[in-house]
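Troubleshooting log. The previous structure file for this entry was overwritten by mistake, so regenerating from the original sequence record. Sequence copied from the archived sheet and checked twice against the printout by T.R.
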Amino acid sequence: MQSIVHPIPPVFDEKSEILILGSFPSVKSREEGFFYGHPHNRFWKVMAAVFEEETPRTVQQKRAFLLRNRVALWDVIASCEIEGSSDASIKNASANDLSVILAKADIRQIYVNGKTAQKYYLKYLKPLIGRDAVCLPSTSPANAAWSLEKLTEAWKRVRLT
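Regenerated output below.
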């Protein structure tokens, strides 16, 4: 069990309208220094399909993709004890301060990527900011019950909001 402080700053600008929150970055994401860095996580493929664009590959392409589509991206958890990338092992979590984003961007809707992000959002952030978040099915490879096609269909509401 390692105690880790979230190493990746949020991606957003004043034009961001949608905020997507994961739980906490995986080992691969922490190594890459950007969100959803594991090659089997389907986040970038799903988002590319939703916005009808090519899948971004580099960190610079991913950041530009998010900003171009008015999407802010961060995680619920600021620090925690965790074993590897296992959300199930998270202990002693503390939440990120969303006011950093909410003060600068007119966020119309907040989404969480999966049940773990939802659990920690409801526990730590909703009481502070008083806003609901829509839970979308996790893009994690651990969520094998959801095909890429099913995920894309469920995630289309990100664009339609």
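The radius of gyration is 14 Å. Archived copy saved in two places this time.
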